[in-house]
């Protein structure tokens, strides 16, 4: 958690510091509230959550007129409320009846899917679980090689098909192998060509169906690049229409000052951020902890 705070605070510190500076002014006039709104919108918090937060701050710091209220305490409490709606953030990686749990990892190319699959595998193996990886991003030959490298690094088997093969057949084989070998969890990397929504819908639908013939899909993780802002939100919406997303992985938070997207995407999809990516290294994936996140925002 210490690292989460260090990594995040480097990129995000500006948001909390900016808000605190504004809230600490002697007079909280309309100009100040507008600047507060701008600061939140610039950090991708989204329109509705911004209005709600500003409404709450206005009530507590101005209307109630508590001159002794500490802006930092009030801001922290309100941010925690915003970031931490009561959501279950545990990864569902266990199957039933002796079958593996299957985690499907989806998102547009470049969001960090393959890297995230590798990092999750590493975490699960460190917890003593057995893992099989399925390289169903068959569209990009490099993705399959990249996953194979992660497999070697983490010490888990990677099921892959010939170049250009059907993603569903690779997913089928990976889960089949997981069932036969009694693996705890099968992680499936998928392709994310959003330019063809109908094609992607067919492809992911088929991938899911062939998996479910053998073992339950326990988690569908949508990987989103935090640096893509509103564009990322549009992608998130499209994916949530295509598959039943159960959790979000927000990558590249180390390089983005737009941590507000955590709030926006949870609100939009009604799905919790479960993991955050904080760098390219094998250990740079952390469970999302709302308290630590808000503390990092406040610097
Ligand atoms: P995919 O196309 O969705 O499978 O994306 P990749 O896993 O290939 O990742 C794309 C690029 O983003 C790679 O260079 C990764 O190293 C990088 N990347 C992934 N996650 C993170 C992260 O959390 N932080 C940073 N800084 N880079 C990341």
UniProtKB/TrEMBL annotation:
Is Transmembrane among the key words of this record? Answer: yes
Q: What class of enzyme is it?
A: hydrolase
Q: How does it sit in the membrane?
A: Peripheral membrane protein
Which UniProt keyword terms apply here? Cell membrane, Cytoplasm, GTP-binding, Hydrolase, Membrane, Nucleotide-binding, Receptor, Transmembrane, Transmembrane helix
Location comes to:
Cell membrane; Cytoplasm
Q: What is its EC number?
A: 3.6.5.4
A GO molecular function annotation here is:
GTPase activity
Sequence ranges assigned to domain SRP54-type proteins GTP-binding in this UniProt record:
272-285
| Positions bound to GTP | 107-114, 189-193, 251-254
Report the superkingdom from the record.
Bacteria
So which residues are the signal peptide here? none
GO CC, any one term: cytoplasm
A Gene Ontology biological process noted in the UniProt record is: SRP-dependent cotranslational protein targeting to membrane
Q: Does the keyword Membrane apply?
A: yes
Please write the reaction equations for the catalytic activity of this protein: GTP + H2O = GDP + phosphate + H(+)
Q: How does it assemble?
A: Part of the signal recognition particle protein translocation system, which is composed of SRP and FtsY.
- Can you tell me which family this protein belongs to? Belongs to the GTP-binding SRP family. FtsY subfamily.
- What is its biological role? Involved in targeting and insertion of nascent membrane proteins into the cytoplasmic membrane. Acts as a receptor for the complex formed by the signal recognition particle (SRP) and the ribosome-nascent chain (RNC).
Q: What is this protein called?
A: Signal recognition particle receptor FtsY
Q: Which organism is it from?
A: Nocardioides piscis
């Amino acid at each position: 958690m210490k690292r989460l705070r260090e990594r995040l605070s480097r990129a995000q510190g500006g948001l909390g510091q900016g808000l605190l500076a504004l809230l600490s002014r002697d007079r909280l006039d309309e100009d100040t509230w507008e600047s507060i709104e701008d600061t939140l919108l610039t950090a991708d918090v989204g329109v509705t959550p911004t209005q709600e937060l500003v409404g709450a701050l206005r009530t507590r710091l101005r209307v109630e007129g508590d001159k002794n209220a500490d802006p930092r305490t009030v801001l922290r409490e309100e941010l925690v409320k915003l970031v931490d709606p009561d959501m279950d953030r545990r990864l569902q990686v266990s199957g039933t009846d002796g079958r593996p749990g299957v985690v499907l990892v989806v998102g547009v190319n470049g969001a960090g899917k393959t890297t995230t699959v590798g990092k999750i595998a590493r975490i699960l193996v460190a917890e003593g679980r057995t893992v099989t990886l399925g390289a169903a991003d068959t569209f990009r030959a490099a993705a399959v090689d990249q996953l194979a490298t992660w497999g070697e690094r983490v010490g888990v088997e990677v099921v892959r098909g010939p170049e250009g093969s059907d993603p569903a057949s690779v997913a089928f084989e990976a889960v089949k192998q997981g069932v036969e070998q009694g693996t705890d969890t099968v992680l499936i990397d998928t392709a994310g060509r959003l330019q063809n929504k109908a094609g992607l819908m067919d492809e992911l639908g088929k991938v899911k169906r062939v998996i479910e013939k053998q073992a339950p899909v326990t988690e569908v993780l949508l990987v989103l690049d935090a640096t893509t802002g509103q564009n990322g939100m549009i992608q998130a919406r499209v994916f949530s229409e295509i598959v039943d997303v159960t959790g979000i992985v927000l990558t590249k938070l180390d390089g983005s000052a737009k941590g507000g997207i955590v709030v926006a995407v949870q609100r939009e999809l009604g799905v919790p951020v479960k993991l955050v990516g904080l760098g390219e290294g094998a250990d740079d994936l952390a469970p999302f902890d709302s308290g630590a996140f808000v503390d990092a925002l406040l610097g």
